[in-house]
Structures
1.
Amino acid sequence: MFPAAPPSYSLLRLPLLQLLLLVVQAVGRGLGRASPAGGPLEDVVIERYHIPRACPREVQMGDFVRYHYNGTFEDGKKFDSSYDRNTLVAIVVGVGRLITGMDRGLMGMCVNERRRLIVPPHLGYGSIGLAGLIPPDATLYFDVVLLDVWNKEDTVQVSILLRPPHCPRMVQDGDFVRYHYNGTLLDGTSFDTSYSRGGTYDTYVGSGWLIKGMDQGLLGMCPGERRKIIIPPFLAYGEKGYGTVIPPQASLVFHVLLIDVHNPKDTVQLETLELPPGCVRRAVAGDFMRYHYNGSLMDGTLFDSSYSRNHTYNTYIGQGYIIPGMDQGLQGACVGERRRITIPPHLAYGENGTGDKIPGSAVLIFNVHVIDFHNPADVVEIKTLSRPSETCNETTKLGDFVRYHYNCSLLDGTQLFTSHDYGAPQEATLGANKVIEGLDTGLQGMCVGERRQLIVPPHLAHGENGARGVPGSAVLQFEVELVSREDGLPTGYLFVWHEDPPANLFEDMDLNKDGEVPPEEFSTFIKAQVSEGKGRLMPGQDPEKTIGDMFQNQDRNQDGKITVEELKLKSDEDQERVHEEL
């Protein structure tokens, strides 16, 4: 148990010649302590007073072990202790480097097992003893705890503790990984943990940046997988150990959680989760897109979500407004499509990450739902759904007064407005800026009874600010049905004649022939013209208001009555204005 010379108090075997002398003397002098039956001990007595619940391996001949011990005589006097030197015994078992009693006493031992060994003299230092320390024919008592065992034939031992159901890729040589770990010695003594530093351990695999055993143990791992990796010392820190935390010849145990993995050669990975039928247009660079997303790390940790803000993310794609990976991943998408976009860090936020949610070198996964997209050059898309069977000789044009029913929705199907809620058709004069430009355009050229679908880009609708109930930059979809149309009036006219006006217009209007026309007479006269089909008021307006506006226009001095000098047709006014300008 101690070297022959110089002494170092570790349980090493004496040289063979000295041992032979001990054996010869022991035969002549007896073996010291009696056995339980009353005679001397013939073999080592082993008391296993603490056996761990789990014993993955037992010490065998040729194994390398590390252990602590206290050595005493029968009277309890201590003659040696590894604890006093604060140094474990590290040695190969069963090859003659230990006294025979210790070699036998360690066989079959488990890590963290504690044994009491009684070693008779002929299996210890015999009749010679060890000068100044162990007297001749001494029975030795050892209290031993085994802390480590390995063999030069060992390989890295990998136990999969948890593997996620979805494994998008496995670690290969050359990959860059981010993982958490707890590192312990084989007896459970902790020497390091990434969790205490608040960040993952980030490194390349198979490039010499890690100990060889960890390089091997990480291969084939999936993001989110948990492994236990046991590494023999010759694939770890070997004979030198590492600092004060990893002793020489120590087996290492790592409990590893792989957070993510990528390769510097990786590109964006796309996975279509849902593709709506009838996709006729796909997004290209330069389009403006509105989409919802959930953003997570590769281990499933959510770092951002547009849903939490109850607002889509709105941006141009392919023009550098978003990270390069998202710029690429959104191109080719259809309206309503759901896709998963996996972005390596060199196409995301790189080595530095961003904020406190996205760490450096993180792979990002976005689950995206495309709400709509458009291009600033888009025009209104018009699709005829049905036309009346009878011949259509007149279609709507600028200036016409139209009545129509409509349903308005977003491209994802979210209904915004419908005229059916009001129980009456919507009314508008085309070209009078009473409706959004895209709808005004889409209502032109229609036949009464025709149904159309209109796709209106936001720059022809409510723009980037939106309107009440309409999100900013939203593409709108209308289904419209034309109920009726009326010819409109020329710009600036409130009333037109269907034929030439009366030759003596003022006299006909002056019903009581008193030389002046008050509002009542004016209103009665105009209504009579309309009723008799001789003229018509501007459609879509309150007739009373229109007639009131007409009266105000003719009552030049605003005295509440029209005289013959004041009454002029608009055509005559326009002609006079031309002469004045000339």
2.
Amino acid sequence: MVVFGNVSAANLPHQNGFLKAISSGGCDLMGHRSFKISTSFKTRTRRRRSAGPLQVVCVDIPRPELENTVNFLEAASLSASFRSAPRPAKPLKVVIAGAGLAGLSTAKYLADAGHQPLLLEARDVLGGKIAAWKDEDGDWYETGLHIFFGAYPNVQNLFGELGINDRLQWKEHSMIFAMPSKPGEFSRFDFPDVLPAPLNGIWAILRNNEMLTWPEKIKFAIGLLPAMVGGQAYVEAQDGLSVEQWMRKQAIPDRVTDEVFIAMSKALNFINPDELSMQCILIALNRFLQEKHGSKMAFLDGNPPERLCMPIVEHIRSLGGEVRLNSRIRKIELEDDGTVKSFLLTDGTTIQGDAYVFATPVDILKLLLPDSWKEIPYFKKLEKLVGVPVINVHIWFDQKLKNTYDHLLFSRSNLLSVYADMSLTCKEYYDPNRSMLELVFAPAEEWISRSDSDIIDATMKELERLFPDEIAADQSKAKILKYHVVKTPRSVYKTIPDCEPCRPLQRSPIKGFYLAGDYTKQKYLASMEGAVLSGKFCSQSILQDYELLAAASGPQKKSEATLST
């Protein structure tokens, strides 16, 4: 679901050259969860903000009541199963590659079950697609604009298990869209708290008369009836159609797609409706319409590595697990029988364990697959799963912009997906005097190799339409103090039609080798929720295989994660 994760790249001539550079080891993207080269620009020196207490004037909404929903209870039960699992006589040493949310989740729940994970991250920062960095002024810039939905039960449980529920800043239950035909104006879908689902969502749609006409609403509702009646089986069967194809098949006017689903498609997977699988849209609508607080949004109160990832790391370490940064894998070394012997790192170190997990993006996994595995159907199907390019832009202005909200905003522009004034929405980034807009630039395939100045110029032209009274493309109004452009040539997997059969289960056909990541099989597709759930499923598979794995780690195989040089 919306708006997650990016890594950055240099200005690359084309994607094939980019992947060739990775495979030859000459590029930092070998770091799992990709790599980062952020270009920044500053026009003047800024005074660093005081390190004193933050004086936040924006008002957040109380945390919604999520604990009694079916999906939350199901997620809570899965979490509890790890804590209540019988303590192993001989804990497994599980080596996990990639410290994004999937790898962190895998390590966390294995540790909860009494095992000893060793989590290896190639870069010097945690988080993968939710990584962030601090610049010389002390300001943070992130790999993506990260939104936490009420419909993310495993993520919400994770926050509760770590005791950090208060780090989510909940916003009013609305979806806010810019109006391209009326520059500077917005249209809202407001979900009333007094109504249960799906009535609150239906009410929000019916009350909005600016984006869709009544005849369009009626045709859209009729078109959705098969999904409502057919349930999950119908939703999964639509994987072979794009959003555009499905809308026309259901006789839904093209204007519905133009007004609503271009924005939703770009927010969900950074691509347009003519490419996105309709299954993705229907899963989101299903969650949003069936759960009262499903579409309610929260922002993290600060940078993700410190505010979310470090509490997970501290929990893992408190239970005997280990997390290492700057540990880049060069090769998966095999035994004679084709199982994993060790992970060879770029510094020459070999890491051995009782089980191995790859929790990296699918593109990194494909580059490091041993040749003898590539024709196995389980791995061969991965060829269709390819990360989608996306660009995340941060712009600091010399003044506080007025035409914005303390919320996520759908830009509905040709080049931008969603954006937010982070100086309003996030406590750590709060600034009463200047705005910092964080914007997702998508689709980005034609822009990923363009210069950062080109991207900023194009972004400013789009912002001129969103802020006609405050921003001009030539900076004759609000001035840019500085910017950061973060490019991700391969972000979340591109959810195009007919991808679903290619998504692998977490247990591979190679004994002792497992996968985690939002591209693996789970019902939340390419999202933070999907990454966390995949880690739980991966941990569950390892626990189910405990006897087999423990028996295999006899005298001929070391029973603990070892290092040799």
3.
Amino acid sequence: CGSLFLSPPAPLSLSAVLSGAREVHLPPGPLYRIEGTSISIPCNVSEYEGPTLQKFEWFVYRPAAPDISIGMVSTKDPKFPYAIFGPRVQSGDVSIHRVRGDAVELRIKQLRTEDAGIYECYTPTTDSKYHGSYSGKTELRVLPDGLWVSAASPGTKPSLRGRGAASPPLQLTLTESQELELSCTALSESQQHTHLSVSFGVSAPEAPVGRQTLQEVIGVRRDFAVETDGRYGEQHRAQELSLAKLGDQRYRMVLGRIRPEDAGTYHCTAGEWIQDPDGSWQQVTEKRTAGAGTLISQLLVWASPPELRLRSGDALEFLCNASGLPSRTPHAAYTVAWEVGDGLLVAQLDTEGVVVLGESYANREVGKRHISLQKLAPAPGSYSLRIESAQPGDVGDYRCVVRAYVRLPGAELQEVASAKSEPLMVHMKSEAVVLGVQAWLATPSIYRGDTAEVLCNISVDSTQAVRVAVGWWAEQEEEPLVKMVASVSREGVAELSSRASGGAVSVDKVGLLCHRLRIHGVEPSDAGRYHCAVTAWVRYPDQSWYNAGAIKSRSVIVYPYALTMDTLFIPLIVGVSSALFVGITVLVSVTCCFMARLRKR
């Protein structure tokens, strides 16, 4: 096994080939591969006689002795390898793999510089006579490793042997909706024409790195096409993920709107590709470096105290703390809001840092309540809500709600994350306001043209100063809805509606808590059921108003009776109309007779 010998001759004639003789096939050379990588060289035989299970032997001719064949491995004899290949065959570094009965592959797991040479695949004959070719040859050239991959700046060349960098990755802590930017430098010093592919991938924190555990985020292929897949494909189509080449060596990945599931260790993988003589592209080497270990800080919100017990008019104050807030940048923003009950907005600090009160806390009825929402310095992510004079209507469950946004290319804000605190309870011992109201007509019988008076007598039982607002409403057959006739606000300002007849309406106060509605020149169109509604308002130290209660009276019927002349007017009209009709009829008859006689004459 340790001696050298010349391989058996392989006679070949053109006529033999053309007549379908045995032929051994190998890929055309030269094949370029990188030192330290693996290679598989296929070999198959066709147009042979004998069994389908053919035998194969591999030889190599080294450049130092191009005429001497060195036995590497055989399917026939396990003792076939020469001494210099024996240990490598025993360790599995060099092996022969049968693909099928008439096809095998020579496999070398880790190429060495001395593995360069001419490789011959020989098939011992099973034919009845020598006819065709019994071996094929191809050339293998082993190139030095010239691929460099680094997460450092261009110009540095860290020595990366194997598939990873020895230095630990940079640790980054980002918040939801922030932008992750990673750079990678990749170059090849090969003298051959090669192409590079560069991709960024992520593996779970603390997980071993490999093809099975590394999920590709985005990559540029050897043909310069940028590709991605899965949920990253959706982000790439939405222009939230990009990969760009900066100069000749540097690649930059930008991932926007990161989420908690984006946490992990990010790697840059570079592959070097070369085109074989048969036109196929082969990846001859691949290297990977860890770019950054990323921890996504999730948006969390908590608030205190969990419960408040107040009296009407006391100050209400809550504290909200949020972690994982994005920095306010042109591309990211957040809001902090307090909500009560089923999402009713109390106050909000918008994306520009401006405080906005909910509609129920700033309108004409209640006034503008003294509510503040401010960021507490120097504590990051701490905000306080304060309502100066709490009202009974402020009772309920309060939550602090934080929302994170990113700004899309069209300047539109899109929510990417939100979180809310546990509910905080507010209880209040309030002083009750007891209301009573009664409506009646000043005159039981009303005739058309009279002034109808609807009085509203109010009773209030409260220890607080209370102002009342009064309104009169009518339900009429001609109107499908209840219609407001007149009202008096808590400030004493009257508001009058128009009547169908065009007549006047007035209101006045005839007692301490007695208000009167007057309908002047009442007409049948004013008939209907009338009631008055009363609302009690309490004013608080912050000058805001609180609706302490409302009540409405029973209805009274306004029906204008017809006058005596109205009862005679209709018969008079009927009599006059009848007389006119009879007179005209007689006159027409006489005229017709006279004209008839006149014609006869």
4.
Amino acid sequence: MAAAASSTSLKASPSPTIASWMRQRSLSTTFGVTAISFRRVEPRGRHFVVLSMDAKPTILVAEKLGEAGVKLLKDFANVDCSYNLSPEELCTKISLCDALIVRSGTKVSREVFESSGGRLKVVGRAGVGIDNVDLAAATEHGCLVVNAPTANTVAAAEHGIALLTAMARNIAQADASVKAGKWERSKYVGVSLVGKTLAVMGFGKVGTEVARRAKGLGMHVIAHDPYAPADRARAIGVELVSFDEAISSADFISLHMPLTPSTSKILNDENFAKMKKGVRIINVARGGVIDEEALVKALESGIVAQAALDVFTVEPPPKDSKLVQHVNVTATPHLGASTMEAQEGVAIEIAEAVVGALKGELAATAVNAPMVPSEVLTELKPFVSLAEKLGRLAVQLVAGGSGVKSVKVTYASARAPDDLDTRLLRAMITKGLIEPISSVFVNLVNADFTAKQRGLRITEERIVLDGSPESPLEFIQVQIANVESKFASAISDSGEIKVEGRVKDGIPHLTKVGSFEVDVSLEGSIILCRQVDQPGMIGKVGSILGEENVNVSFMSVGRIAPRKQAVMAIGVDEEPSKQSLKRIGEISSVEEFVYLNL
């Protein structure tokens, strides 16, 4: 069998097949990628963003937008600025519009897309979050959704530093005291920043800018981010460390992570207990990353000396909120992006994205994908699910601190090289690798761009097999190089984290972890255990899960040799409690284990 390899590249010129594919769809090749092989798709059944240029398009701006952005829009299109529309009024207007721009106050529901009658081509969200846009409905109706994720970066970083310094010197409390007619100099003695350790939790755009500014204040800066390239951190004098090391050694902790299932309430009772007594917390990211009840307890106990918060789980927070009213908390009403310059920057960024999309260009800030031809999607559907789940599994096996930089994807197929389009599979692997620890939405449009932004290099290899090409793929393998693993058995003989999967009867299955053969359905979640191969192990683990009413869907054991080491893969429908997982780890023959959420 033979193998051929390629890698993602934002600068590479598209192959003739891709270039043709893009021209047929009036799409720019600005973000073309090199790929292994591509199948030409006939015009029948295509769905894509194309605008007839025989008349100016109409753009509805439903919430106030900076003048610079409005001017850009007017240079290209007819612009209707209609604010405070009711849902009914929006649905009435939308059938006359090619694009819609909103902020966070307008709900772009399924009814809006249905009312457009297919005319609406682009929705622009002037800001980062897209909770108010029904992405599934947008994609079903062939409508591209774009946002403006970068213009607020400096404003958010400056606000984080403002909160840090104001908290350290008790500015808000002292100001209130003086205005109340008091003069309490001894009460508001602060702490110096020079020489103190700041842990930046999330080293993306905002986190990086906060680190730069903190270094200028004489602080020692460390950071935690599984995807941050170590060389970029070193370039500004920042050390990347594990999550536990960051929170346990910091004098100040500044949060810049997205709100995802894995980061929700990540600062909780358990993690507050690991921190230095007297630590200070700053949050200009998302309110939900902090367990607010746990933070109040940590403030009362003195584990946390002070907190400076711009975001809350519920906004606005209740008037009687114990957290907001606490004497050692400085609070602001979500002002991170609220500078004149940032508001204008957002307006320009979203205007450029919407105009570009209407021109047929691929948008780097797209948060949903163009529709895939139905015949391709039908054939690849189970493999698309397999690809994403292998990515999710692989990234969850990475231990913190090192960062994911190099990923190799191998496809084994009996298909001819020009008869297997892997772009969608690569996009879904990228989605699985990035989305569990990021707020970025990854899809066919932005996958390669998003990977490059994070310093993630994905190479692809094709293994050509003998046999019938009836099935598009025999297996997919994902390897992550130059990282440590939470589960040592996932490291292959060549030193990479390796997972491999196949589709069986339409269901994705995990078939290899490291050098161990397993066979477990990728439905629900998975527990991996390395154990000494001996009788009774399946029963012991199954009994612990059964006592908690956790249903086991599949169980498979792969071993080196009888009575030697083995890896047991257990599919579960519910998440076991920490106590149950602890009991599994305490079984004498279990050498290591990990719980992986799919």
